[in-house]
Design a protein that fits this description.
- By secondary structure, this protein is an alpha+beta fold.
- The chain folds into four domains: 211 residues, HP0184-like (DNA primase, PRIM domain); 94 residues, no CATH class; 216 residues, 3-Layer(aba) Sandwich (Rossmann fold); 71 residues, Arc Repressor Mutant, subunit A (Orthogonal Bundle).
- The strands form four sheets. It has a nine-stranded mixed beta sheet with strand order 15-14-16-17-13-18-19-20-21, sandwiched between helices. The chain has a four-stranded antiparallel beta sheet with strand order 2-1-3-8, with helices on one face.
- A hairpin with a 4-residue loop joins strand 19 and strand 20.
- The radius of gyration is 33 Å and the shape is elongated.
Length: 649
């Protein structure tokens, strides 16, 4: 077992082999000797603790880490303080194409490591990790600290000076493991029961994607720096005071002959630099030529610039974005009155399926495994292409569909299509040909894969996008909140770019355990999957051999009664069942024996055959018109339904 753990440590936590960090009674020290298997075994057994220097010769790394920590006096609150920032950083990491994992550190914090398929320059991953922290909005919080490893872009490789960088303690130190530390944990902050199996199955982040991102940023750097310099030159003191006022920064204005100072009550980089009685220890200074700089006498702030101060105050938002907000030029407005809102006219859109789908909707078709979701979605695709009814709902106009499948293989799918097209009347009925594509190895969180998806939408210009199934589109645990949020952001991006596109995604229901009841939030994954949708369609059956299925449609709009359907074994097409006609004999027998009120009859039909209230009312109306039953005035209150030839009681 230990040999397996040692092999995994060597493979995933690859570092320098000619040096290591060693825990001592007085702290730790760097040892310039080979990192042997014996040392690693001693670490795993708990007899010593070893750290690895991640920067390899050539200033390359095979892994990197966000190190989250709290102050010593806050140690007992570490979980509560760090949980949200960790989740935000992991979500931003996924958004940028990385696969994040989570480890407890040896003391009170957490490590968030990434493992790469190929070594990459330390300076490149550091650049991306800084971007991730900014995107997550977790920089500058005094309650916790986040460090980036590797800490250096480069280290000297000639043996002069330190030449090593900073080391990181390895996981799986036996004594720490017994205390729940230095182990991999899940999104619920619980240790994985089989640590070795978990590590062996982690996904490697693609170095190619990271290097492509870095290259894009470097192309942007020069014009952005020029724009920043020019925009600073245009700022006067009134602009700066508006900015500080809006962000709650207290200051005093001091005019001098060649410059103007905004004397701050406290340094923006540390609350420890609070100087209310000696304003000016920290200041924003604007020279006569328009150049703006930040100044603080504390050694901690040496080298801090005005752009650094801006990022500390308002994150990634630039000054130009701030002034756009002030003038209402960006997409955030100033609010609308009720009359203004009601006076606006919506763009007239052609309906897709009245009562079910509208342009711009995002929804799911869900069921247990092997219930025929793909068959139903294929039929829906063909109904859209032919403008023929779908399960009794009219489709007034043909619509272009892009159907991206991640299963099954083409030969099997083609046989289904042939049977369905024939059952619907043949190819001559097709008015708008759909596009089908079988996709393998797709990950919607991967930038290249997502760009391909956007390209497919731009190329084919569909009105409906079907993705089938969801779990084949992502390589992460869908029950993990930090995995699900970036996924939903991907869908938000598609909707923003293609606001009239209807998106339907095939997904699965969670398995019920024991006496669990089916509920509205039983879709596999976190609850906000359900909360984020415009609609959800569910397929249910009493058991797999039951020829009848029920389609439930959940939405915040007008409710739709459950639809019962059957699948034709020859054409594979689904047809709505007339349950009232199918069970007419049983219904008449019940009426003859019980003379029920209308309410009692509808309740019994629902319980006995799954007939909805609307369908039940239609059945009663049909049987009355056919004079098979007598429903007197007052039915539902005091009257009763009876067979012809009997007297009303």
């Amino acid at each position: 077992m230990e040999s397996k753990a040692l092999e995994l440590i060597r493979r995933f936590f690859l570092g320098r082999q000619d040096a290591y960090g060693l825990e001592t009674k007085n702290g730790y020290k760097a040892i310039r000797e080979p990192l042997t298997d014996e040392l690693l075994s001693a670490h795993l057994s708990g007899t010593t603790r070893i750290g690895v220097y991640p920067i390899l010769p050539g200033n390359l790394v095979k892994w990197s880490v966000f190190d989250f920590d709290v102050r010593p006096e806050q140690a007992k609150f570490a979980d509560k303080i760090l949980r949200e920032p960790i989740q935000r950083v992991m979500a931003a990491s996924i958004d940028n194409g990385l696969f994040p994992y989570l480890l407890t550190s040896k003391s009170r914090g957490y490590h968030n490591p990434f493992f790469f398929d190929e070594p990459i320059p330390a300076k490149d991953i550091r650049l991306l990790m800084v971007h991730i922290l900014k995107q997550a909005g977790v920089m500058g919080n005094e309650a916790f600290s986040i460090e980036i490893f590797p800490k250096q872009d480069t280290v000297s490789g000639n043996g002069t000076g330190d030449g090593l960088g900073n080391f990181l303690w390895l996981p799986w130190h036996r004594q720490s493991v017994e205390d729940g530390r230095t182990v991999f944990i899940d999104s619920g902050f619980q240790p994985y029961p089989d640590q070795e199996r978990f590590l062996e199955g982690v996904h490697l982040s693609k170095s190619e994607n990271i290097l492509s991102w870095v290259q894009e940023q470097r192309h942007k750097t020069e014009p952005e720096q020029r724009e920043s310099s020019e925009s600073q030159a245009r700022l006067d003191i009134s602009d700066l005071t508006k900015y500080l006022d809006a962000n709650g920064i207290k200051y005093k204005v001091k005019e001098e002959s060649t410059r103007t100072l905004l004397l701050l009550d406290r340094c923006v980089f540390s609350e420890l630099h609070t100087t209310p009685d000696s304003s000016g220890d920290s200041a924003i200074v604007r020279g006569s030529g328009g150049k703006i700089c930040y100044w603080c006498f504390h050694a901690h702030c040496k080298g801090k610039t005005f752009p650094d101060a801006l990022r500390k105050i308002s994150g990634d938002a630039s000054l130009s974005e701030f002034f756009q907000r002030q003038t209402g030029k960006n997409r955030r407005g100033n609010g609308k009155s009720l009359s203004q809102f009601l006076s606006e006219r919506d763009e007239i859109e052609k309906p897709l399926i009245k009562g079910l789908f509208a342009p711009g909707d995002l929804g799911f078709l869900v069921s247990s495994f092997k219930m025929g979701k793909t068959l139903l979605l294929t039929q829906l695709t063909l109904c859209f292409s032919m403008a023929v009814p779908f399960l009794g709902f009219d489709i007034p106009l043909p619509a272009k569909v892009l159907y991206l499948r991640f299963e099954p293989k083409d030969s099997r799918f083609r046989k289904r299509l042939v049977a369905m097209v024939r059952g619907l009347g043949g190819m001559e009925k097709v008015k708008s040909e759909p596009t089908f594509e079988l996709v393998r190895g797709f990950n919607i969180l991967d930038k290249k894969d997502f760009d391909w998806l956007i390209g497919m939408i731009e190329k084919h210009k569909p009105e409906v996008l079907i993705l089938d199934p969801l779990y084949k589109m992502i390589n992460l645990d869908l029950k993990d909140t930090s995995s699900a949020m970036p996924l939903l952001r991907r869908f938000d991006t598609i909707i923003e770019r293609f606001p009239h596109l209807l998106i339907i995604i095939a997904h699965h229901l969670r398995k019920t355990v024991g006496d669990d009841k089916q509920s509205w939030d039983q879709m596999y994954g976190p609850m906000f999957f359900s909360a984020s949708m415009d609609f959800e369609m569910r397929i249910r059956a009493q058991h797999r051999e039951n020829p009848e299925f029920t389609l439930e449609y959940l939405t915040n709009d007008v409710p739709v009664d459950p639809i019962t359907f059957r699948r034709d074994p020859d054409t594979l097409l689904c047809h709505v069942c007339d349950l009232g006609a199918d069970h007419e004999e049983e219904i008449l027998d019940f009426i003859g024996k019980n003379k029920p009120s209308k309410t009692n009859l509808l309740t019994w039909m629902a319980a006995a055959f799954g007939i909805s209230r609307r369908q039940g009312q239609e059945t009663v109306k049909r049987l009355t018109n056919q004079e098979k039953i007598i429903a007197p005035i007052g039915v539902g209150r005091t009257g009763h339904i009876q067979l012809p030839g009997t007297k009303f009681s």
